[in-house]
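Summary for the steering committee. The consortium agreed at its last meeting that each partner would contribute one worked example illustrating the joint modelling workflow. Our contribution is presented below. We chose a case with several input lines so that the handling of multiple components could be demonstrated. No manual editing was applied between input and output; the record is shown as generated.
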Amino acid sequence: AQSVAQPEDQVNVAEGNPLTVKCTYSVSGNPYLFWYVQYPNRGLQFLLKYITGDNLVKGSYGFEAEFNKSQTSFHLKKPSALVSDSALYFCAFSSSGDKLTFGTGTRLAVRP
Amino acid sequence: EAQVTQNPRYLITVTGKKLTVTCSQNMNHEYMSWYRQDPGLGLRQIYYSMNVEVTDKGDVPEGYKVSRKEKRNFPLILESPSPNQTSLYFCASSLAPGRGPRGEQFFGPGTRLTVL
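What follows is the complete predicted structure of the assembly.
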């Protein structure tokens, strides 16, 4: 079955340090990959997506993600973490352009 | 303001008592979907709708019903709720595939349901 996996339940990082939230995929064909963020007591918000083209995708709030076909990964990155980045992050894929299938989520905690 | 609204935001009910969670969007989106979020499982799709009067099952449809009589509304119905339906529910909407950015769904704020 096609899926995305987020191997870390939680990532801890100090403010100002770079952060990485990992995602690997098992999707046939050309995957459409996404990152969404969920702040406390809020719905999910779209961050960025990879469809085709450049492997480095830039999104909202200074986040970016690198699509790596050989490693089947789509890790989310930010050069300098902020305390306000603390949230739950979801990787997702879409095969048909409508249904999104989500990973289990990674909680990011940025300490001051 | 473009948004997806859900009501109620919080609901505590008892087993077997029918309930409806409403979802409404003001963006003229064709596609709407319901998800449930459970710890360690991420979000799983319950039902989705490609347009008015067109609905289909997602990954976990058992125990739920939906209807899409108007483009803006997509209510989720639990005819006989059970404790295993205790969860956080999200409604989402987007333009139809091919008409807008692929995969960019707009989510409501969530409904936390507890079934005793």
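Chain A touches chain B through 23 residues (CB under 8 Å). The CA atoms of residues 92 and 102 of chain A lie 4 Å apart.
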